[in-house]
DNA sequence: CGCGCTCATGCA
DNA sequence: GCATGAGCGCGG
């Protein structure tokens, strides 16, 4: 039997399967999805088995055997392996990169090189022949290695001063040899556990026979007689206030055993979750739930786009739909944006499904995440709630995939593989005949467009198949054929919930024209109306949420005399002032310097920090409303583990009057006493050079407005802006999704942007501008050539132009954009174009990155 | 990617 | 004449 293996070498030349022989002894272990160690050239690397076959037309002198199987059970399911192939072809990354993205970081290979001594390395009497020819130092090395049995190469080099040549020579002589090991970065956590002897009589008897001075040991035996279950060693020690030696000596007497037992690190172990029962559904919820649950019951691959206004009770619909799925013995995956994976959210799922839920998010430690993942592997859970990568949960019977806040841009991964979790979810669901629910109060244009789109199959049928006839049956052809099913797009079905639960109205939204405020002499960051509203809430002891969305574009530093702006010396970006460290920092490379007091350019002392960050708002609030209690939530205050939760709990307990934060306060929070929401600068996002700016602004304002008046107390929203007439702001203020989407769709169509046209962004970067420009230029030419050759008419090549951030970490950046229509993938074209620049990449250390369906055009 | 093989260049 | 170093192509 042979295995096709994708090796852990992310390079163009190795981005294909290699055949290995599966030794007889391994046959019951090796399966599709297994992690294996294989010899690769002169070294040993990790790889994934993607296929097993018995083809015997392989050159037996070339094929090597698999050297080890890494896991008891394959960490990937066959459908995930297939999905990895699809991801690598769709998003143009190495297949290994896609495979690696599917397993927890803890299982990423760590390569260790160890040195061992050959059996006869000391020669006959140790001082003759070969051995006598060696340097004293080398003899010492051999002795050292021999003593230790096996030494890590690096530590040997360190110990004997770094002369690799000496060791190499010893290896060439056959006195030492190298063993390569592949290790996991993380192992299952083990806890020493005490197992009392089975025989209770024996324990009693032993207790009476122990000498009186062994009082502690007697105490342990008595305790174990009362509590015969296994107990953690530490717990036992703590309970009885004794030392490990006592227990150890009992173990030596054979009265108990101490063993290492694998345990799960449970991040939620210390918390109990109140069990919740299904809530009665409102008519609208009932209808939506009915549609979803019927599709789940029918085991049909369907995609629902659930448009539900904020507070319409989407989560309850999710919970009950999941219950339907579990009742059928199938599993469910719930994706939420990292930022809204709040304890509140987790609580609702744990409360309903208890131990059946695994939680995956980035704040878990490597070990915790690994353990949650293992619960999925071992089928101990049937629901996963997590951020983007949870879409790869190794379930085998998926019935339902829910993507909450489906419009969130964080579902797109910005590093390779640059996949979009929404699209991967649809592909994965089609493998399982599962239902996808995309939920949002502000569905993305892409998803809305999906409700209009005709399925690719229907279109192909209409146009008479692929251009150029049937593809030849090559390996690539076979892969493409396997992808067809995954590329099949069912039209999305739109479900709508217009009403908030219990008929609470959406809060009125007031737009405040900040130009008008300025004209009438108010230079503060608070408009008069918002100021009054906050004051009122303080009086009534109600709470306020304030949003200031800076997205990293916080204050820049400028000299008022000469106009000098502090910039990063390595990136084309302004430096940002950080109050806490009194430093100015680059957001892209981390470069920092001390706060400016004099202008480095003209020597003037008129340095001013422009733009308003959350820190300044906090300061200002303190000045305007003495005694006000403010909680500030942004990246600076929530990096610490658990801090996010801590602040929110404080706010919930009304230990603060105002919750001030960046977009993290806009998502999913639900506090009964919040009656006022203020967006301080609604147009920060609007002014970004991105065709999605209006969409993002509309989404953000709608989301944040949804935080007010969710319970008995009515709410009110103030939106401060310099662009009060902009349609995104007006539509958001009227809670009018329909008018926004109509307007935005029209504009996108007119300007040929997504979702009507699709984009592929190719970014080239290099230290030197001339070479970079030349290469980018020929990249565009090559793309145009290939587009023409392939007869694709609806493909447009734009650029090259300098990227919006023209330099990062001393590397200049240029980009080409491909705009094209329809579902037909043009990845083959891009792949070929990029391939023809392989030599430039290598020779000149040029970097070329490809982003299919980019979310950010930086 | 990392290795070793090849070939060019430099000094005995 | 061989030793040292950067570039190339290969890996099952």
Describe the structure in your own words:
The protein has 858 residues and is an alpha/beta fold. Helix content is 34%, strand content 23%. The strands form 8 sheets. It has a 7-stranded parallel sheet, sandwiched between helices. A 6-stranded mixed sheet has the order 5-2-1-4-3-6. The longest helix has 21 residues. The radius of gyration is 32 Å and the shape is globular. About 2% of the residues have low confidence. Belongs to the helicase family. PriA subfamily.
CATH superfamily of the largest domain: P-loop containing nucleotide triphosphate hydrolases
CATH topology of the largest domain: Rossmann fold
Rounded mean pLDDT is 86
Residue windows where pLDDT falls under 50 for at least 5 positions: 124-128, 459-474
Q: Determine the strand fraction and express it as a percent band.
A: 15-25%
DSSP helix fraction: 25-40%
**How many discrete structural domains?**
6
Q: What's the level 1 CATH class of the largest domain? A: Alpha Beta
Assign the CATH architecture of the largest domain. Answer: 3-Layer(aba) Sandwich
What general outline do the C-alpha atoms trace? globular
- Please count the helical segments: 28
Number of strands: 34
Radius of gyration: 32 Å
Strand order across the biggest sheet?
15-16-14-17-18-13-19
Derived structural class: alpha/beta
Major beta sheet, specifics?
7 strands, parallel
Distance linking N and C termini? 48 Å
Quick overview:
The protein has 858 residues and is of the alpha/beta class. Helices cover 34% and strands 23% of the residues.
């Amino acid at each position: 039997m042979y295995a096709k293996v994708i090796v852990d070498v992310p390079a163009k030349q190795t981005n294909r399967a290699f055949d290995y022989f599966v030794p007889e002894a391994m046959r019951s272990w090796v399966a599709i999805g297994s992690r294996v160690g294989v010899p690769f050239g002169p070294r040993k690397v990790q790889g994934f088995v993607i296929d097993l076959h018995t083809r015997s037309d392989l050159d037996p002198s070339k094929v090597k055997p698999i050297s080890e199987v890494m896991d008891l059970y394959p960490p990937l399911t066959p459908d995930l392996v297939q999905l990895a192939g699809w991801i690598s072809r769709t998003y143009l990354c190495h297949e290994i990169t896609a495979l690696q993205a599917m397993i927890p970081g803890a299982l990423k290979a760590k390569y260790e090189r160890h040195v061992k001594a050959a059996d006869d390395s000391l020669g006959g009497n140790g001082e003759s022949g070969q051995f006598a020819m060696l340097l004293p130092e080398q003899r010492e090395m051999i002795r050292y290695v021999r003593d230790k049995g096996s030494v890590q190469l690096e530590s040997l080099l360190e110990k004997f001063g770094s002369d690799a040549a000496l060791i190499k020579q010893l290896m060439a002589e056959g006195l030492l040899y190298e063993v390569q090991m592949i290790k996991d970065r993380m192992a299952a956590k083990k806890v020493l556990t005490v197992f009392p002897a089975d025989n209770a009589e024996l324990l009693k008897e032993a207790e009476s026979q122990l000498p009186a001075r062994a009082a502690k040991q007697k105490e342990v035996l008595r305790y174990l007689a009362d509590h015969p279950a296994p107990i953690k060693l530490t717990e036992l020690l703590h309970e009885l206030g004794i030392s490990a030696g006592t227990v150890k000596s009992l173990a030596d007497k054979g009265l108990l055993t101490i063993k290492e037992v694998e345990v799960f690190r449970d991040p939620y172990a210390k918390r109990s979750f109140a069990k919740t029962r299904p809530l009665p559904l409102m008519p609208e919820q009932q209808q939506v739930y009915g549609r979803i649950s019927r599709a789940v019951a029918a085991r049909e691959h369907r995609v629902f786009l659930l448009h539900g206004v904020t507070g319409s009770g989407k989560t309850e619909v999710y919970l009950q739909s999941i219950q339907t799925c579990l009742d059928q013995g199938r599993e469910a995956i719930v994706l939420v944006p990292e930022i809204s994976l709040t304890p509140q959210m987790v609580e609702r799922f744990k409360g309903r499904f208890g131990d059946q839920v695994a939680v995956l998010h980035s704040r878990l430690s490597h070990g915790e995440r690994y353990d949650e993942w293992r619960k999925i592997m071992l089928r101990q859970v049937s629901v996963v709630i997590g951020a983007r990568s949870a879409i790869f949960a190794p379930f085998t019977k998926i019935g339902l995939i829910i993507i909450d806040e489906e419009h969130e841009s964080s579902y797109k991964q910005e590093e390779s593989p640059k996949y979009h979790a929404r699209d991967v979810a649809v592909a994965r669901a089609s493998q399982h005949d599962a239902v996808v629910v995309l939920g949002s109060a502000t569905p993305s244009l892409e998803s809305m467009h999906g409700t209009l789109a005709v399925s690719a199959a229907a279109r192909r049928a209409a146009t008479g198949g692929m251009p150029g006839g049937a593809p030849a049956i090559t390996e690539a052809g076979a892969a493409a054929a396997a992808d067809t099913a995954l590329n099949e797009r069912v039209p999305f079905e739109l479900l709508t919930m217009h009403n908030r639960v219990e008929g609470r109205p959406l809060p009125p939204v007031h737009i405040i024209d900040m130009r008008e405020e300025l004209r009438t002499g108010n230079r503060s960051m608070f408009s008069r109306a918002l100021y009054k509203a906050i004051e009122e809430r303080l009086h009534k002891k109600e709470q306020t949420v304030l949003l200031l969305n800076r997205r990293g574009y916080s204050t820049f530093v400028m000299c008022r005399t000469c106009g000098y702006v502090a910039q990063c010396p390595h990136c084309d970006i302004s430096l940002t002032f950080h109050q806490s460290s009194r430093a100015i920092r680059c957001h892209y490379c981390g470069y920092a310097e001390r706060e400016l007091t004099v202008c480095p350019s003209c020597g003037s002392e008129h340095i001013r920090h422009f733009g308003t960050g959350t820190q300044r708002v906090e300061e200002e609030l303190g000045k305007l409303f003495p005694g006000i209690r403010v909680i500030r939530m942004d990246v600076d205050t929530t990096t610490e583990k658990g801090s996010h939760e801590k602040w929110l709990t404080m706010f919930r307990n009304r230990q603060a009057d105002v919750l001030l934060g960046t977009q993290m306060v806009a998502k999913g929070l639900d506090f009964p006493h919040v009656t006022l929401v203020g967006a301080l600068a609604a147009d920060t996002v609007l002014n970004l050079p991105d065709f999605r700016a209006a969409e993002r602004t509309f989404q953000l304002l709608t989301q944040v407005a949804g935080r007010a008046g969710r319970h008995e107390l009515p709410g009110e929203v103030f939106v401060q802006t310099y662009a009060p007439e902009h349609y995104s702001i007006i539509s958001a203020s009227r809670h009018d999704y329909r008018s926004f989407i109509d307007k935005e769709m029209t504009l996108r169509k007119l300007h040929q942007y997504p979702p009507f046209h699709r984009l592929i962004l190719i970014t080239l970067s290099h230290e030197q501008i001339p070479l970079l420009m030349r290469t980018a230029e020929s990249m565009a030419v090559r793309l145009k050539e290939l587009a023409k050759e392939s007869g694709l008419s609806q493909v447009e090549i734009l650029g090259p132009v300098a990227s919006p951030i023209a330099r990062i970490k001393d590397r200049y950046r240029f980009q080409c954009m491909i705009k094209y229509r329809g579902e037909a993938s043009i990845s083959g074209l891009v792949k070929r174009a990029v391939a023809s620049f392989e030599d430039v990449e290598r020779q000149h250390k040029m970097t070329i990155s490809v982003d299919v369906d980019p979310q950010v055009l930086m």
